[in-house]
């Protein structure tokens, strides 16, 4: 067992600021979506993933992986969205055990109505206060961290 590598003062400050920023930003985005469009942030994430594919349909397993959700969480959330007419389930013709989550016209309308307010909030809270260089640095930092996480996940 090795000794714990504690964060130094600069790392601790950066880490805590990151956590607070993520929490505050997520809370503001969730409130904005709920207030202006009656969509939860989770609804919006599901709808974004479905609108990112031309046919507006993804296998349940693909959607769960894209969202980093357990299948049971997706199943429960999907059921709530289905009751509201935002998505439907379709059986997979080539795999009796598989199913698709499919965007409905109402779901497409909901995200199209919600997206302008959402992106304006993201722009106002995040990007309007950053320089081009800071945006580039943020992208680089995110890429490095995500690559390290992916390396851990893939056993590297």
From TrEMBL:
SMART domains: HTH_MARR (SM00347). Gene3D superfamilies: Winged helix-like DNA-binding domain superfamily/Winged helix DNA-binding domain. One of its GO terms (molecular function) is DNA-binding transcription factor activity. Transmembrane segments: none annotated. One of its GO terms (biological process) is response to stress. Pfam families: MarR_2. Residues 11-147 form the HTH marR-type domain. SUPFAM superfamilies: Winged helix' DNA-binding domain. PANTHER family: MARR FAMILY REGULATORY PROTEIN, TRANSCRIPTIONAL REGULATOR, MARR FAMILY. This is MarR family transcriptional regulator. It comes from Cryptosporangium phraense.
